[in-house]
Structures are given as structure tokens and as C-alpha cells.
Design a protein that fits this description.
The chain has about 290 residues and is an alpha/beta fold. About 45% of the residues lie in helices and about 15% in strands. The chain is built from 9 helices and 8 strands. It has an 8-stranded parallel β-sheet with strand order 7-6-5-4-3-2-1-8. Helix 5 links the parallel strand 5 and strand 6. The mean pLDDT is about 95.
Length: about 290
């Protein structure tokens, strides 16, 4: 049986309470996509080595108690990568995050591409070449840390039709050139729709290097992160390709942050329903 997962909130404190992981299990998910590294202004990146290790060992312990896998995590990201100093700053944060993932026993770290010209590098072919090289340099800089911590860095397709490395096929070429088991791809199904690509086709074409999934839907214009079947993706076609992989079907959508605190029961029921939808896609259940 395939595993299904869901992302956590962008809060570095998440996971310190055993209830955080038990809640994920109670909803019906097997795995977590840890997003606490996105909280770059928190105390997390100011901790000394002992504090940092203890922080992530606590999450690991709580996950084991709940019977939930820390299946993947998301590196810090932003889009102001236009100077060498900014890129160096972000690379350092990602390296530190990879170390945290390793402590948790998390084997996959999703990263966004470097964007030296922001979301649009289409004005000049030379810009596209620089974008490609910047991302190659970025991944190669992360590679020794990834190997040391038994983590695979998974570079993610982006929701922009004007960025040369948005499409998964473009990133596939980059990962194929590097050709290392600790560098892979993350297919974001919603982002694929924005670039007018079929998630099923992208998974089928690129599955040699796909190691992580971000699964959500939209109508091909706005990266709205809605539930599967509420947009235009062909989930039956996607499920058929997915059956040929051993990937975690990890959700990049949810609703817990939209409900008021007093609506705990409503939130719980909604998340259980979301888990059941993901189980149907993961196992190919359509009748």
C-alpha cells in the first residue's frame, strides 16, 4: 500500500508536542512533509548545535510514537536570489536545514530553483543560461551536505510560464546532467497545471528522477492549492502512473488554517475526508 502524507504549518515549533504528530495519524495520513524550515526568522536558525539536534530528535521521537513517517521536508525559500550574496545566504540556510532533516531521519528535502532574474528570465537567452548554471551550482553546493546526512535534495517545478526552469522537464535535464542519487525532482502537480502540463504526463516522463510529490489542484491560471477534483487535473490518469512508483502521495493542500479554533470537529472531519481522497488516488480506487 502506498503512503499518503500532508504538509505541516510553516512554524518551527510544530512537532515539539506529541499531539502534533498524533493528529496527523488520526486524520488518516501516514507521512508528514515538514515545513518548519520556512520559518527563517524564528529561533530555529539561531540555535547552537546541541539545541538544534535536540529540537529535531524530539520531532523524530514524537513521529515514532505516533507511527508517522517524516517522509519529506521543505527547505527555506524566497525569490530574491539576484545577487551572489543573497544566493549564498539562502544556500547556507538550506544546508543547515538538510542537517535538521538528517537528524529527523527525513530522507527528502524539497528546494525551489534559484531565480537570478526573478520569476521571468525570458528576455534574453543568456539569462536562461545563467539561471541554469546558478541552479547547477546551487545543487552541487548542497550535494556534500546531502550525502553526509543521507538526504536527497529534490528540486521543484515552479508555477511560472516565463521562467526557464519552471517546467519539470527542464529540471529533469539539470538533474540528469548532475546524475547523482542524492539529487532528484519534486513534481508539484498544481505548478504543472500552471505551465500547461499534465501532472500524469510529467510523472510518466520524469519518474526516473522524481523522489517527492506536492499534490494539489487548480484551474491552470492561479496556484490556488485546492483539493484534488476541484480543479482541472485528470486524477485517474495521474493515479495510473502513480501506481508504477513507490512515492509518497503528499498533499500540498488542506484546510486546518482556515477554520476558527472553535471549529475543531469541523476541521478534523474535513482533514479525514481529505485523507480519504488521497487514499483513493494512491490506491486507484474509483468505484
Amino acid at each position: 500500500m502506498h503512503k499518503i502524507g500532508i504538509h505541516t504549518i510553516n512554524n518551527s515549533v510544530w512537532g515539539q508536542n506529541p499531539k502534533d504528530l498524533q493528529e496527523i495519524k488520526d486524520w488518516g495520513f501516514d507521512s508528514v512533509d515538514y515545513n518548519g524550515f520556512n520559518d527563517i526568522n524564528s529561533r530555529l536558525f539561531k540555535m547552537n548545535d546541541d539545541e538544534y539536534t535536540e529540537h529535531f530528535l524530539t520531532i523524530k521521537k514524537n513521529a515514532e510514537l505516533a507511527g508517522v513517517e517524516i517522509g519529506q521536508s521543505h527547505a527555506p525559500w524566497r525569490t530574491d536570489d539576484k545577487t551572489e550574496e543573497q544566493r549564498a545566504f539562502m544556500t547556507a540556510l538550506v544546508k543547515r536545514s538538510i542537517e535538521g532533516a538528517g537528524i529527523m531521519g527525513c530522507k527528502r528535502m524539497v528546494v525551489h530553483p534559484i531565480m537570478p532574474y526573478g520569476w521571468d528570465d525570458s528576455a534574453d537567452h543568456a539569462f536562461e543560461q545563467e539561471t541554469y548554471q546558478a541552479n547547477k551550482d546551487f545543487l552541487l553546493a548542497l550535494l556534500p551536505v546531502a550525502k553526509a546526512n543521507n538526504v536527497t535534495v529534490c528540486i521543484e517545478n515552479m508555477p511560472s510560464r516565463a521562467l526557464s526552469v519552471s517546467k519539470l522537464t527542464a529540471l529533469y535535464d539539470l538533474v540528469e546532467e548532475i546524475n547523482d542519487e542524492n539529487i532528484g525532482l519534486c513534481l508539484d502537480t498544481g505548478h504543472a497545471l500552471i505551465t500547461q502540463d499534465s501532472p500524469a504526463d510529467m510523472l510518466n516522463k520524469c519518474k526516473k528522477w522524481v523522489r517527492a510529490l506536492h499534490v494539489h489542484d487548480n484551474h491552470g491560471t492561479v496556484d490556488s492549492h485546492v483539493w484534488p477534483f476541484l480543479g482541472t487535473a485528470d486524477w485517474k490518469a495521474f493515479s495510473e502512473v502513480y501506481q508504477t512508483t513507490d512515492l509518497i502521495l503528499s498533499s500540498e493542500t488542506g484546510c486546518s488554517f482556515k477554520f476558527p479554533k472553535e471549529s475543531k470537529e469541523l476541521n478534523t472531519n474535513a482533514m479525514k475526508h481529505l485523507a480519504s481522497i488521497f487514499r483513493c488516488i494512491a490506491d486507484g480506487i474509483w468505484d
